[in-house]
Design brief:
Length: about 80
């Protein structure tokens, strides 16, 4: 069996060629292209000024309130996961 092609190192312009190579390497398999995206939703902490004595470092408790969203999309059909 031929060595798998790493698509991360392949430029986007050559993606159809890489798809054809993978399909030819395994003709019995179904080869699909999926797109992936990630996004952070939420609030980023805001830096504020705090009163402290000279020579001391201020300590402030901050709550990070965000969640990561991951999405997979099949461009040809519009299916999502």
């Amino acid at each position: 069996m031929p060595r798998p092609i790493e698509l991360r190192k392949t430029p986007l312009k050559k993606l159809p060629e890489a798809h054809d190579q993978v399909q030819q390497a395994a003709p019995e398999a179904t080869v699909e292209l999926w797109a992936f995206d990630e996004h952070r939703i939420g609030l980023k902490p805001i830096l504020r000024r705090v009163w402290v004595c000279n020579g001391q470092r201020p300590t402030v408790v901050v709550q990070h309130r965000y969640q990561w969203l991951y999405a997979f999309v099949h461009p040809a059909s519009g299916d999502t996961q």
